[in-house]
């Protein structure tokens, strides 16, 4: 029993690939080295402030992302967004502790420019080296795929495009009749012929991409391949569901495939919450006079409270209270909530201005400090809307795996304001799920910048 559990743990704790390990340390090392060089060139002493800056940069940039093999332009954009997101956090920390003027500004500018350039050059050099290593005939691993279906074709495409480790896909094995097989799939034979083919042709990797409904065939195939020297890889057909932060986990020695998992766990959760607290605090300090003026305008525009508290659905589906400046004469918060429409008679003249510029959302920075919301995330909908759309929009409730946001990826992509059709809501949900799949601190900062632009120029909300 002990040996079996140890084997399972060895399987689940397989080491990351060499490019992933190199990428994890490349960004913090490059950023720290560039800072050291700039400090030396501008004759800045390595005292407590400088060493603290180096340590902070290393922490914020570790682990680095694996960008090897990507398009050079896309890599450059990704590096710039990520790096200047780090600089923005450093600037906020320096502003908060009053140390912005303690270092030479020319040195900081040289460091801010040299670091992404050096990181991009190192990434491109690493890509060329890995591709050179992969081009060697002895480096290529022969592979076959069990299942000439859509999933199997995706695996074959992945093997063709993947540089590390390099593979040579020899073809497919499938028991179906030729008429039912994809015309562009090179089918070698039936599943029963796989063991002999593997031994004769030196196959190193076998990818089993059979549908889950074929469990007896999968078990028989796995048993027949146990006596071969090839590495076996089972590819579960989970692409029929919306995968969010999919990952393989070890829970008490049991392999578990996470399909819909929040991205904000561990270090990511700490980074997200810290950035929310720092940003929300600074923003509330800066906009305090604006809040007072808006509160006065709401009070003079129509009778009623200045702040409207509405029940919304928050993290993990819990009901939260969200604050807004009141923009309507009525305050719907019951089982039926009608969305605001163009020329809605319930909206006051001053409220129309607030909604058009999104200034009515400013009190939600208090919700961020309370931990109910985040600055960036899926917009919270009224409880009544959730009960309706969760029944008609696929994966609608998956957007509640994170705290709702004041602004979001959907809002900066044209889906701001009324969702008067089911298609608009479905598109908004798809953008929300895309945000969860691809979250990074750089993406949050990009959304914030685009939101400020929309507040000035967009007329899509009412």
From TrEMBL:
Its main location: membrane. Its EC number is 2.7.8.31. The chain crosses the membrane at residues 21-42, 48-65, 77-97, 109-130, 277-298. It is an enzyme of class 2 (transferase). Pfam families: Bac_transf, CoA_binding_3. GO terms for molecular function: undecaprenyl-phosphate glucose phosphotransferase activity. It comes from the Bacteria. It is a multi-pass membrane protein. The keyword Transferase applies. Residues 272-456 form the Bacterial sugar transferase domain. Keywords: Membrane, Transferase, Transmembrane, Transmembrane helix. It is found in: Membrane. Belongs to the bacterial sugar transferase family. This is Undecaprenyl-phosphate glucose phosphotransferase. It comes from Ideonella paludis.
